[in-house]
Amino acid sequence: MRLEFEAFYEEYYSSIYNYVYFTTREPDAAEDLTGTIFEKIFRNQDQFDEEKSSLATWVYAIARNQITDHYRTGSKKSRLFSQAPLPEELPDQTPGPEEKLLADHRQELLHGQLALLPQRDREVLVLRYYGNCSSKEIATMMKTTEAHINVVVHRALRKLKKGIMEHQVDL
């Protein structure tokens, strides 16, 4: 199968970058890894078999393996979901500084609690909510059942909510 690579790149770039960024929390590494992922996809596109998996599953499996390789090689001493500072977001549309402070606090709290989850739980949530992967696609990538992924999502969200509620500060 030959991909129309420009259209493919435009369709998948932001979701792959977001997945890599929210896994590494390192903007420079996310850019480098995303480029490497697309290079591997381009070079290996003839290996894609639509009878075995969907295109998205295949793409995210390549991304997941590339992130794993990045940390396995020891090129970075930081761990997944490091406590690196959050990047600048899109222009803030809250009307005042109090609302901005509250929004920043909530985002920091979310990312901090996400970083405390076990690696498998983090990875499943990032694929599900930042990578926009279905439970079926995640199950295929992680070589487990869709039901198991749904249980992991449910439990991880419950842990995340509990952690956030315990650290909630009234501003």
Architecture overview:
- The chain is globular and about 50 Å long.
- α1 (5-24) runs antiparallel to α2 and α1 crosses α3.
- By secondary structure, it is an all-alpha fold.
- Mean pLDDT is 81; it is low at 76-81.
- The protein is built from seven helices and no strands.
- Helix content is 69%, strand content 0%.
Task: Fill in the keyword field for this structure.
171 residues; mainly alpha; 7 helices; globular
Structural topology:
Elements: H1 5-24, H2 27-44, H3 55-72, H4 97-116, H5 119-130, H6 135-142, H7 146-167
Helix pairs in contact: 1-2, 1-3, 1-5, 2-3, 3-6, 4-7, 5-7, 6-7
Order of helices and strands: HHHHHHH
Strand content: under 5%
Total strands: the figure is 0
Uncertain segments: 76-81
Distance between the termini: 55 Å
The assigned structural class equals mainly alpha
What general form does the structure show? Answer: globular
The rounded Rg comes to: 17 Å
Average per-residue pLDDT, rounded, comes to: 81
Helix content, binned percent: 55-70%
Largest sheet: none
Q: Number of helix segments?
A: 7
Short summary:
The chain is mainly alpha-helical.
